[in-house]
Amino acid sequence: MRQMPEVHAIHEEKSVPAKKFAKAPGMEPMSMDAAPREDDRIMVLKEKWIHHILSGRKTLEIRNRKYRPGLYFIGTSEEIRGVIKLGDATEIRNMKQWRDLVSQHLWEGQDKLPYSRTYALRIKTFRTMGTPVKYMWKQGAIGIIKYRPIEETLPPTCDPVASIIKSKTTVSNETNAEEQATKKHTYETQGELSHVFHNF
Description:
By secondary structure, the chain is α+β, with helices and mostly antiparallel strands. The protein contains 4 helices and 6 strands; from the N terminus they run E-H-E-E-E-H-H-E-E-H.
């Protein structure tokens, strides 16, 4: 008899008190290698948020939806500045929670929640890139985008195909010039020799 697949019940998320968001202990820069690879996730942020995250001041990232826990590169629309490890996302349901967490998310001056569904993503660890990494950014892309390395373009003089064509053309021109010179020399020599032979 065929067994029916197991059905998992969906539970409604309950309101979580602000103490749930207590600052994660031991937050410190990651020591792991963080060189980006193609398709790695990049969280695009404003300069001020990047600064606050990589200085250790901002420990909650505010978003309008849940993000999967794990590693995310962070940067501007031009370059990657660091990498963070996100923990679980928890919904902020009221302004009391929001105000209690201001010192962690650093959104000041709000009189209402920024999104209809507002989530706090715990920044568990972070690491600053020793050297910012440039990447290809598609105009208009926001939120999370995938890493694409910048395609290096060679200047016209360094274009390998153009160099080969130019080289072949130069060789061809030099060969033609050499052949013409040889023919001319041969004709002139033959004329001189004919004159000599005629005198004999």
